[in-house]
Design brief:
Elements lengths: L1 H14 L4 H9 L3 H23 L31 H37 L1 H15 L3 H12 L3 H27 L3 H8 L4 H37 L11 H8 L8 H28 L6
Helix pairs in contact: 2-11, 3-4, 3-11, 4-5, 4-7, 4-9, 5-7, 6-7, 7-9, 8-9, 9-10, 9-11, 10-11
């Protein structure tokens, strides 16, 4: 009997062990606004995947008998200046806006992480060159830098991705560099170096995991900023081109009809607002859940 009780006690204690992931989940569940934001982002992801199969009208289906009609049972968000269903175009534009945001920030995060690791670990001339380039990029507001890059490369969504990735890179580089500087002199890194571990193993096996929580938070919040920047470039005519149903381009197409047909700009603007807000709220929730310095 005593042996059975000891075994049950051991199983119970093993189930009560707080792993870092369990601790993160427990803290994140307390972030109610972040949970709502995550649910909305998951909904957007589902819409982005299935939008072209479920929309009631084609994104370029013209109906000249229903030009600039307001919201109704037939057209939930109304129609635009060509009679196209605005609800269908906004849903299909979700895939474009999310793809641009995720792809551009992913490229910037990968490049910035590598540069930050190399600069912080090796220091010297390499670190000085990387940081001076970052300082130059930081000297420009993000949207101005993006406009300059697109002006050089030309209009189009692919060039928008490159532009957003370029001005996202310095943020990740500095973030990872600061973590690398604090960890490269730690005991476990010194021990790994003493037993003959290669620099690549030290960087990616011992130092990078310490920077991942900050990278995740910055990555999440940067997606909202990148979507806003991409929409701004499309609004200015430097991003997506007609008839692409990108949210910023929908805003640009409807700006001449704001006084007579408010819905043409209201619903695309609302989509941008809610998406950017959701990513920012999710980033705040992740920061609170991943930060070990925050007390209960």
């Amino acid at each position: 009997m005593a042996r059975v009780m000891t075994k049950e006690k051991t199983v119970t204690e093993s189930n009560d062990i707080k792993t870092p992931f369990k601790e993160f989940v427990r803290k994140f569940k307390k972030q109610k606004t972040a949970l709502v934001a995550l649910a909305f982002i998951c909904l957007l992801a589902i819409i982005a995947v299935i939008s072209y199969q479920v929309v009631p009208y084609g994104i370029n289906e013209y109906d000249y008998s229903a030009i600039m009609q307001g919201p109704s049972a037939k057209h939930i968000f109304g129609t635009d200046e060509f009679g196209r269903d605005l609800f269908s175009r906004i849903l299909c534009g979700t895939r474009i806006s999310l793809s641009v945001g995720l792809l551009s920030v992913s490229i910037g995060a990968i490049l910035g992480t590598i540069l930050g690791l190399l600069g912080g670990y090796y220091g010297g001339l390499l670190d000085a060159c990387i940081m001076r380039v970052c300082d130059v990029l930081f000297a420009f507001p993000g949207i101005i830098l993006a406009i300059a890059i697109v002006a050089i490369l030309g209009s189009g969504l692919y060039n928008v991705v490159i532009a957003v990735a370029v001005f996202s890179t310095p943020t990740f580089a500095r973030l990872v560099r600061s973590t690398t500087l604090s960890l490269k002199s730690s005991v476990f890194v010194q021990a790994a170096r003493n037993i003959g571990s290669s620099d690549r193993r030290i960087l990616f096996r011992h130092i990078l995991p310490g920077a991942i929580p900050n990278i995740i938070v910055q990555y999440t919040m940067s997606i909202g900023n990148s979507i806003l920047t991409a929409s701004s470039l499309s609004f200015l005519g430097m991003g997506a081109q007609p008839p692409t149903p990108e949210w910023g381009l929908l805003l640009s197409n409807g700006r001449n009809y704001m006084m007579s047909s408010w819905h043409i700009t209201f619903f695309p603007g609302l989509a941008i607002f809610l998406t950017v807000l959701s990513f920012n709220l999710l980033g705040d929730g992740l920061r609170d859940a991943l930060d070990p310095k925050l007390s209960e």
